Amino acid sequence: MTETEIKDARAAFAFLLSEMGFGGDFNISPIAGSGSDRCYFRIVVEGRTFIGTFVPDAVEGKCFVKMARDLKSAAASVPEVFAVSADYHYYIQEDLGTISLFSVLSSPERDELVRETMRRLVQMQKIPMDIWHDDCVSKDFGRRQVMWDLNYFKYEFLKIRNVIFDEDLLENDFVRLADRIMEIPSYFNGFMMRDCQSRNVMITDDGPVFIDFQGGRLGPVLYDAVSFLWQARAGFSDSFRMEMLGYYCDAFCNGESVKTQEMLTYLDDMVLFRTIQVLGAYGYRGLVQRKAHFLLSIPSALANLKGLLEKGVLNRYQELENACKKIVDDSSGDFYITSGRLRVDVFSFSYKVGYPDDLSGNGGGFMFDCRAMHNPGRYAAYRNLTGRDKEVAEFLETRGEVKAFLNNVQSLTDPAIERYLSRGFSHLQIGFGCTGGQHRSVYCAEKTADHIRKTFPEVDLHLTHVQHPIKS
């Protein structure tokens, strides 16, 4: 948000707090968001904390507020909304803390928390439709929505990855898969959260609470259970998935074993559909918009897809199967994948273009400005060369500036790498910027990468020149 937008948000929250009975000073601090355009703030006033939200789309804001209030009235595990602006762009809700279910999936409490999340999901899904249906902005989940999601995958993942396929045959497979999803009986329908994943479940003293359900609608509830248990980066084993899914289906079907078995007959196709749907989303948010969280999720989603291929789930969808095999086998993807070792990304860039994206999702590291050094690019003899060329290296080294600069860089980065290795951290980035991202920054990135390779051979080093794309 700009300073003006933050000022406007503060004024809006001040008015809403006064409606809640607070009249004194308050503090607001931004909270990092994820994939949406919503902006979040933690508000501290008179010893209490709340979450303030700015929503650019007023329709989305109205939907969330109405749905939250109606679901809450039916005892669903959702946050309480205390105040909302007349235009629905701003609202203040309950502060659920900072612990998401995703952040504790490696803890000893995981199994219990997941089981309780499944129980509360069923409880929310079975709330009578007349309580929440009028709140929904989205249409009931049907064939059109299925086809939209399947084509999202085609255009935002397959075509972006330059996968070759027969368009007509693929569309035929999409129709067959849509037919299968539409076969799910209406008695397996209910409140479909649509984005049910562990990142959208907050862990509070009172147990799991669902957030980000403004896309909710009437639809097959199995979709939510699959979305949660097959979430790309949750890392659940197949045996754990099936154990929790069995608990979920049994709870939704009130212990009727025949109904539970019937629901499970749609499992494979629903997992396939959801996997394809999220790859479409990851393609757009990650490969197109270059958002780190989504790039990091692509390898795990492809691993899910590989499992479905090996299981034979795609045998009935031959062209879709052929296309999926190509993306699973493709090793040239430029999305971010870690090796399990400390990964150090060293890169050069141009300040004219702007800082490159942080593909690790960590948001940390070093950024060094090389523009104080004399610029070889000002001279015709060097304009078509880069910092990888001998002539440019000699120009920079002869003047003596670059040696002292890099000595100072190493005095900062070497201790950081040592500490990251000792503490088991996964990623560090080191960037060098200059005016054009061609001479000084490229030279410094090359020398730093060479130094790290020699000094820390256990590091997984990646060197990238953003403006002059040579990767190593």
Task: Walk me through the structure.
It is built from 15 helices and 13 strands. Strands 1-2-3-5-4 form a five-stranded antiparallel beta sheet, sandwiched between helices. The protein has a four-stranded parallel beta sheet with strand order 11-12-10-13, covered by helices on one side. A two-stranded antiparallel ribbon has the order 6-9. The model has no long low-confidence stretch (mean pLDDT about 90). Strand 1 and strand 2 form a beta hairpin. The protein is globular and about 80 Å long. It has about 475 residues and is α/β, with parallel strands linked by helices.
Give a short synopsis of this structure.
The protein has 472 residues and is of the alpha/beta class. The protein has 15 helices and 13 strands.
